[in-house]
Design a protein that fits this description.
229 residues, alpha+beta, 3 helices, single chain, D-amino Acid Aminotransferase, Chain A, domain 1, globular, six-stranded mixed β-sheet, three-stranded antiparallel β-sheet
Length: 229
């Protein structure tokens, strides 16, 4: 990533990093692969209460810096209670994809093992097609990256390590999830994700750093072709 703008010292001025647009997916070295989430891309800022009995404060800022915390007040409160940290900045999505019947994107922390395991999370191997009955679904927050924790910036920490730390910090529930992710080969998981209604996957270099507000060549989007969905 060349000629990057200086990183703002105030985390509230940070904006999500995104993949650089391209007509075709670029090769990514040693990728981490996660579902391509659809929804409002936000950075979550959580600060612990100043007194032991004071609840944590949580703000959700979208890609334009607009505060969208009050759009999903229950989710905002759930995030504040789900983080095991004094303060944190978390990258993620406000989306109903994680709560749609049939997607079964369950987030149960497990060790790194073979079988029906996606790097830190267990997913059902056979995912039924999502049920679309026209009814609105609850929105949940799905975390994909961790940028800061307990006053320490993690922007220069490799992505895979940031994800491992993120796994240990969030107590997942109905309204707060951590995105599953895997490493190659991923054919079986891509079929499951397509069946669950995801339009593609995001490939991110496992060693990639995070530069708020920038576009990076180290991340790329791979869309599922219509004939394969």
């Amino acid at each position: 990533m060349a000629d990057a703008d200086p990183i703002p010292s105030d985390p509230l001025a940070w904006r999500p990093q995104i993949a650089r647009p391209s007509r075709r997916a670029r090769p990514v070295t040693d990728p981490v692969i996660e579902p391509l989430w659809r929804g409002i891309h936000v950075l979550v800022h959580v600060e612990g209460g100043r007194a032991p009995d004071e609840p944590a404060r949580c703000r959700l800022l979208d890609a334009h810096g607009e505060d969208v915390s009050e759009e999903e007040p229950e989710v905002t409160r759930a995030i504040a209670g789900a983080l095991r940290a004094g303060d944190a900045v978390v990258d993620g999505y406000l989306t109903d994809q994680a709560t749609r019947p049939g997607t079964s994107v369950s987030m149960l922390p497990v060790g790194r093992r073979s079988g029906n395991i996606i790097m830190g999370h267990r997913m059902d191997a056979d995912i039924a097609p999502p049920v679309d009955d026209g009814e609105p679904r609850p929105v949940a927050f799905v975390a994909v990256d961790l940028l800061r924790v307990d006053g320490q910036d993690l922007l220069d920490v490799p992505l895979l390590e940031r994800k491992r730390i993120l796994d240990s910090l969030i107590e997942a529930g109905d309204l707060v999830r951590v995105s599953p992710y895997t490493r190659p080969p991923v054919d079986a998981w891509m079929r499951s994700w397509r069946a669950a209604g995801f339009e593609g996957v995001m490939l991110k270099a496992s060693n990639s750093r995070y530069r708020p507000g920038s576009q990076t060549e180290e991340w790329t989007v791979s869309l599922a072709s219509p004939e394969r969905r």
